[in-house]
């Protein structure tokens, strides 16, 4: 309920944001399609054996990572759902959220500290006379890293679904004397089965577009994904036709995945009840408690050990010497500035697009053009899922080469790519909050005659401060830990903390890398926790688990 002038300004701002995003992505795609190298053919590169080998490996590792993550997540989610009184259960659920806010570089170092050649496990096995039975590099390392990130995510999403099962179901199951296998088959599995397509699609997308983990743990050309191959083709080989072919293939793969996720995800039927308090009667026997406790303990160890390795190795580094290095200070300042600017741009652009969409749909009889514009605003936030950051960087790398040194444009490009990378996640944080806020305050603001700056100051900001800060902290954390965009445009003139950390790892300065990883992980963790509201009751905890 806004006046005509304010509505026109809102729609104009939303159109400018959407147009800017589409233009930025389309120019990168145009550069890939239009780039031509005399004497070469990009269509020949598209059918090159190397390109298809990389594509097969990308799909293979994504499929295996998705299957393993879901396979291990099911017993963990069931154990947490059954053992509501497990000691420290709330903190265990919060621990499962930490990998999501952890930079991939930091997680890779933690995994190497546990599973690497000189890691804790191989050292213990060597003491038993076994010669390095665990390898962190190659396909096994990539799968291990992806399960580390995605198993907790899958477990949290499944746990949210299991906790929404009506209390009447458990009462009926207890009255019928159902055994654990029957409870899983008739009560739990239908809920999990309804959630699986969406969870599997999300994890498969994350693994198929993985860059940093594969770059660090791949171990060579035999274990390269499409995004890593694009980076290598431009940064090291300077083979634009191959980079173009790989980029087009990546767009085709992500497009197919997005279509599959959209049409294959059913609506989860979690049953209907009368609001009875959920009280589970299974898992109370000694065998059930031991089995559930073992599943939870193994999951906690799997997630916590790499985090502990990062902290332990970082504390052994000479942090004071690192803090005194001008290059480290400059990298930290550069990273923070880029993170803050990209985070602010992301939150502002997202809020403007959501507000414009609300203004369009607020009309009683929106035209087909207006409905299309509203759909475009919603889809524009997910455009980066169709064209991943490395592909965007490759397009702009080719587009700006004729203008001279591309490092001049590096800071702006990194900021814009990082902003687009965080846009889908921030949109999902702000959209429901802004919709609820508008439903609650629209009539009040109209009755008081508040609009523009006064409405923003007295109504919108107090009501939306928490979700806005949450979105800002999440966008800043994603930008701060990103290596994808900086990997293409980083140089001596623009060094970020992730790029410096990767450089120290590549030059085998592992102690310095451990110290930088600790600093980077702590900063990102503080940003993530600062924007996450505390769970004040059981319902809020369940909401956090489902998110």
Q: What proportion of the residues is helical, as a percent range?
A: over 70%
Strands, count: 0
- Shape, principal axes of CA atoms: globular
Measured between the Cα atoms of the first and last residue, the distance is 31 Å
Radius of gyration (Å): 25 Å
N-to-C series of helices and strands: HHHHHHHHHHHHHHHHHHHHHHHH
Structural class by SSE content: mainly alpha
Instruction: Report the uncertain regions.
Output: 270-275, 534-547
Q: Tell me the quaternary state.
A: single chain
Strand content: under 5%
Verbal overview:
The chain contains 24 helices and no strands. It has 547 residues and is an all-alpha fold. It starts with a helix and ends with a helix.
Keywords:
mainly alpha; about 550 residues; disordered C terminus; 24 helices
Write the layout of secondary structure elements.
Layout: H1 4-34, H2 42-46, H3 49-82, H4 89-95, H5 104-115, H6 120-127, H7 139-163, H8 167-175, H9 180-208, H10 212-217, H11 226-235, H12 240-264, H13 286-316, H14 319-324, H15 326-361, H16 368-380, H17 383-386, H18 389-400, H19 410-448, H20 452-480, H21 484-489, H22 497-506, H23 510-530, H24 538-546
Helix pairs in contact: 1-15, 1-16, 1-18, 3-7, 3-9, 3-13, 5-13, 7-9, 7-24, 9-12, 11-12, 11-18, 12-18, 13-23, 15-16, 15-19, 15-20, 15-22, 18-19, 19-20, 20-23, 22-23
